[in-house]
Amino acid sequence: MAFSQEFVLADRTQHNLKAFNCGKPDMNLFLARFAVKNMQLGLSRTWVLPVVDEDQQPQKAQIAAYYSLASSTVKREEIPADKSLPGYPVPVVLLARLAVDEQFKGQRLGEKTLITALRKSVALVDIGLPALGVVLDALDEDALRFYRHYELFEPFTDDPMRLFASMHTLRQI
Q1: Average of pLDDT values for 50-57?
Q2: pLDDT in the model for residue 120
Q3: What values do phi and psi take at 107, rounded to 5?
Q4: Do 75 and 89 touch, CB atoms closer than 8 A?
Q5: Which domains does the chain have, with CATH numbers?
Q6: DSSP strand E in 55-158: where?
Q7: Which residues, in sequence order, are CB contacts of 105 under 8 Å at separation 6+?
Q8: What span, in angstroms and rounded, lies between the C-alpha atoms of 82 and 135?
């Protein structure tokens, strides 16, 4: 099976969002029921990596991976940076979700999805979205190991599952 060359916004008329299975029920449910609804409400954006059907049959595309981004703010005291920041909440991009369908694990799609999500975050900042960096909450220990492997993130606050990467760092990838 081949994958699309790029991630596209989730669209329930073109993508089979309900068939996605990453092995984490909450992640599957989000894509199937809430991703498009949250986009319509302006809460987040979800991009998917469709599987290309070589037969070109008129059916909804299977999803190999997805990620969701949202805007958020954090207290300046929580940010692991030496910068002199204002005393009010600081804007960040929240990497809210990232998952790969179990059928496609072991093909480095997690890495591709992460890099794509981080580059999209930088691109959003470049066109005007104010954000000092990207914050994420690792779902579990496996997710934490995955994110820590890339050495881009540093701990955020006292919660070891919450990570931060500055836009300066992300511009290097």
Answers
A1: 78
A2: 98
A3: -110, 15
A4: yes
A5: 2-170 (3.40.630.30)
A6: 63-74, 90-100, 133-137, 154-156
A7: none
A8: 17
